[in-house]
Amino acid sequence: MLELINIHKAFKNNAVLKGVNIKVKKGDVVVILGPSGSGKTTLLRCINFLERADKGEIIFDDLHVNINNASSSEISKIRKKTAFVFQNFNLFNNKTALENVTEGLIVARKVPKAEAIEIARKALSKVGLSNRENYYPSMLSGGQQQRVAIARAIAVNPDVILFDEPTSALDPELTGEVLSVMKQLAREGITMVVVTHEMSFARDVANHIVFMDGGIIIEEGPPEEIFLNPREERTKQFLSRIL
Ligand code: ADP
């Protein structure tokens, strides 16, 4: 469904991605692991052009985009196929939970308001926040705010949801509620690419693990292979530090 080919990205003279290839099938939960600074977030942001890669190709179903000459219509098609969940939620603080979810539907996708509200209510119910639709972000816990952000992501019915360290800004007691919503989405067959340090999530929910270091993929495979029988020294070192 989604393929990244030979993605390169540098910030000034700091080469952050040095030729990354990833394939994501429909229904996959791909977890990207790796030490801090290895390029995981940048890679995720390059998928939906939050960051523009310097070189490479993105194939999304029948859309084949060469990043160097991607047109704005191609970029907007890719953006419409994806939703992004940020580390710091990125909610509008002056909008209620419901309005945060309807905003993108009404403004970017031109869904009529009444229909947008109906879709948003379903999405909020899915993340267990039906009783919070009129709350502003400041009245919600971090875990609830992130669940609103997840509702916003599922409301646009994307082909893939990109999660950038979705629990790393949360107090430990609030990570569970977010991870359990993500697990439920995975069970429903929603395709996800997740950057996380939550090893239990990676082990239990991912069907494919990608281990990155220094802007390249060192090793990838099913979780049982990567966690129990890693082949590469750098993977072994990383896992021994984190597990
Ligand atoms: P990871 O997610 O694995 O921690 P990142 O993709 O966040 O790695 O960062 C990889 C490198 O890219 C880091 O050295 C970081 O400082 C640099 N970097 C990331 N974003 C920017 C940016 N917008 N401008 C300059 N450097 C950046």
From TrEMBL:
Main location: membrane
The species this protein was found in: Defluviitalea raffinosedens
Pfam families: ABC_tran (PF00005)
Gene3D superfamilies found in the cross-reference section: P-loop containing nucleotide triphosphate hydrolases
SUPFAM superfamilies: P-loop containing nucleoside triphosphate hydrolases
Protein name: ATP-binding cassette domain-containing protein
Recorded GO MF terms: ABC-type amino acid transporter activity; ATP binding; ATP hydrolysis activity
Domain ABC transporter residues, every copy: 2-239
Keyword Zinc annotated: no
